[in-house]
Amino acid sequence: MKSEGINTVIVGKPNAGKSSLMNILLDEDRAIVTDIAGTTRDALQESVRLGGLMLNLIDTAGIHNTEDTVEKIGVDRAKQYIEQADFILFVVDGSEEWSDEDEQILPLIAQKKGIILLNKADLKVKVSELFLKDKLSWDTIAFSNETKQGLQQLEQYITDKFERGDLQFNDQICLTSIRHKNAVMQAVNALHRVEQSIKYGMPEDFFTIDLMEAYQQLGLINGDTATEDLVNKIFEEFCMGK
């Protein structure tokens, strides 16, 4: 898996619509889609920006019991990706009855964070959201690869989870705009100047100014600004002018 971005693994039984979902999120025909179950035999990885967040999408082989050697390797790899995932997109074919193949996925993802996409919502639905809630305590979005129903809701859901701090990844901070990135770089440069000023025994006036610069730049991200009281406090503690 890639180290940057939210590692988002698409799981489901064969022919649930995983590869079609991958293509919709990428807005291109990247994954092979057929009516033949088991088309995806290995994981396919691509990065996509969704709602300002970078997702590392992994389309996995349909999880089920199989005697096909190659397909079995793909299923085993899918399970490995689930273990490493930051977020799971569990695709359920709502046009079919709940199956043993759906059931065997549950213990693999129960301890992870994710969302259920009740796919094929444009067809007659045979699996209810209430039924899924009893199976797994995740939220459910009625989805359709054909009409793209639920796509905006999915984007908003992932964005809201991230902004609330419910969804994190790799212990890294995600900057969603060039302006924020530039502000952080300016703050880091200012702190490097503070280190140099202290190292060479420069007057306190020098690194106090740089500390304020770092604070101001970070304030451009979180909306905080330096108040007059804070400025006076910094100046007093560093004995400015003495």
Topology, please?
Blueprint: E1 6-11, H1 18-26, E2 44-50, E3 53-59, H2 69-84, E4 87-93, H3 100-103, H4 106-109, E5 114-119, H5 129-135, E6 140-142, H6 151-163, H7 178-199, H8 204-222, H9 228-237
Parallel strand pairs: 1-3, 1-4, 4-5, 5-6
Antiparallel strand pairs: 2-3
Helix pairs in contact: 7-8
Number of strands: 6
Query: CATH topology of the largest domain, what is it called?
Result: Rossmann fold
Order of helix and strand elements from N to C terminus: EHEEHEHHEHEHHHH
Largest sheet: 6 strands, mixed
How many domains? The number is 2
Question: How would you summarize this macromolecular structure in one to three sentences?
Answer:
By secondary structure, this protein is α/β, with parallel strands linked by helices. It has helices spanning 18-26, 69-84, 100-103, 106-109, 129-135, 151-163, 178-199, 204-222, 228-237, and strands at 6-11, 44-50, 53-59, 87-93, 114-119, 140-142. The chain has a six-stranded mixed β-sheet with strand order 2-3-1-4-5-6, with helices on both faces.
Describe this structure in words.
- The protein has two domains: 6-163, P-loop containing nucleotide triphosphate hydrolases (Rossmann fold, 3-Layer(aba) Sandwich), CATH 3.40.50.300; 178-237, no CATH class.
- The protein is 43% helix and 15% strand.
- It contains nine helices and six strands; from the N terminus they run βαββαβααβαβαααα.
- It is elongated, with a radius of gyration of 24 Å.
